[in-house]
Every structure is written in structure tokens, then in C-alpha cells.
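Format notes (please read before filing issues)

Several people have asked whether sequences and C-alpha cells are stored in separate files. They are not. Every record keeps both together, in the order shown below: the sequence lines, then the C-alpha cell lines. Line labels are part of the format and must not be stripped during preprocessing.
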Amino acid sequence: MKLLLGLCLILSLRAVGQIDDETPINKIQVIGSHNSYKQAIEPALFQVFEKRDSVSASKIDYEHIAITAQLDLGLRNLEIDVYPDEAGGKYAHPKGLDLAPAQKAFDPEGKMKEPGFKILHIPDLDFRSHYLTLNECLQDLKNWSDAHPNHTPVFITLEVKGALAKGGDGATAQGLSAKHFDDLDKILLEKLGQDHIITPDIVRGNNETLEGAVLQNSWPSLKKSKGKYLFILDDSGAKRDLYIAGHPSLKGRTMFANAVPGTPEAGMLIRNNPKAPEIKDLVKKGYIIRTRADADTREARMNDRSSFEAACASGAQIITTDYYQKSTHFKSDYSVSFDGGIYFRANPLF
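Then the structure lines:
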């Protein structure tokens, strides 16, 4: 009888997604949101855009609940897009406000006039966000984490929007420079606190390279990752290379980089196609992979779960979606969660 009761307890714990605290974080699987900050385009402006380009309009016809509400729901990945704005005011008056009447106020408190990184999807069109500034977003994440000190780790994909500068020191040159990435690292540490972030240095430990540590299964356990965030820079080209430059194995950096496997900086990787055959092999080697369950509202409109099922089977540890809940913009039964309606579980590949 005791054996039977023990077995039932183990099965019940698994059913609600509980995992042994000593499990390393590369052996879990989580669901999170894509463009997590996004609010819907105002209906009047959306109608104008839809008349001009109905196909493109349909691809961005979605929205999310507040980020802290997503975390309360159990999501453990967020995606944030930031735009540098050193002087302030660059995105304070989107052109979309002038294209349609009777829209609600955009920034009544004047936050967009302040210097610093701004959060939005598409300037002048898809600019409604739960947070206008990165500072206020990070403050809410810090507050939420402090209120839930034992929360499982939250992965955050962070994309820095804009083209690279062709020259200059970053303060006067047009476009992105190394200074912007240095500033971003600094802000993440200042606003969240070093104790709330798992950095590449922590994972690398005493190993010669970050990738060497990852291939030796040096990811921290869930126990050591409670109350913490991990950031990965979403770029596979010049911005990534600029972020890595001068920081071999990402020494001193706050974020992981979407580096090429086989390089010293490889640890967390982005593979948007969940059906890519290499994902399973990369996961087995020790990398943490982020992939997508859906994109551009396509799967939701067709009620097609094949990409999500492929993502689950691939072992990719992070699966993003726009539909952890059903759409409120069109009729569809499509939504994404693991069995039992959970968003966090042991990785089936292990």
C-alpha cells in the first residue's frame, strides 16, 4: 500500500509539472510568449492598415495580457524588443496616431520623451506596449521576482532593433554601436540585480570556454536557478558579433548570444523552425534551444498544432507562442500548453 501511495504521489507531482530541484535547467521544457509586451493596434488604425495591406495586417493581429500576468499563469519565457533612444523623444509621436482619428492617448505621462531604451514592435504602426520603457519593464520583473522568490527560471529573448552604426563612438553616430550593448548589460544588472541573473560567467565557471562548460552539462540546477532570469540576445549576425567582440566566451557579458555551435561563445541558441532536424542533436549535446510553436497568426488561424508538436518532440527547452490562450481577435480553438494545461515540465528528450 505504501509503495502504491508513493507511486501515486510521484505521478501526481509529474502531472502538475513539478520536477526534482537537482534537475539542470537544460533538461526542462517551458512555454513562453513571443513579443510578450505587445498590445493590440488601435482598431481605427488597424482598419486603415488592413485596407492597405490585409496580409501584413493579419500577421500582427494579436496581443498579450500583462507580462506579470503571463508569469502568474506559468509562462517561463518572454521576448522583449528594445530601441535605443539616447536623447529621448525619438518614438514619442508615432505617425500612426495621425492616420486614424479617435485613438486613445499613447503616452500621457511623457515616458517616451525620457532618454533610454524603448519597448515597441513596429515604430509608427504597432507601437502599443504594456511597457513604453525598458526601465519600467525591468522594475516590474524585479518586483514580481521578489514577490515570488522561489519561481522557476525565466528565459528572456531580447532583440535590439536598429541598424549598426557605420562609424563613430556611439554617442553621436547614427545606428547601433558597442556602447548600446554595454549600456544594455549595465541596465539589466542595475535594475534586476546580479543575484537575479544567470550570466554566461556563472555557467562557464572554471572552464576555459562557455561552450566547453555547456557540453559538460554545467548548467545550474533548478534549485540554484530559483528567482533568476537568463537573457539571450536575439541576433545571428553583425549585432551578435559586436556583442561578442572583446568578450571571448562572453566573459563579463550579461546575456548569452545566439552563437554558432563550435565557437567558444555557444550556449543558448535560437532555431525558429521547430522542425529543423538539428535541434534534437543540439539539445542532447547540452545547448539550450529556443524555437517557436507558431508565427504570423498562421497556425492559430488554421488550428494547426503540428509545429508545436514538432517543437515538443525536438526537446527544444524554450517554445514560444502568441497563443498560450485562445485568440480574442478571430475565432479559433488553437492554444498551446503541455498536457494538463501547464507551461513547464521535464524535458521529454531526457
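For reference, the curators noted about this record: The chain has a mean pLDDT of 93. Residues 178-192 form the longest helix (15 residues).
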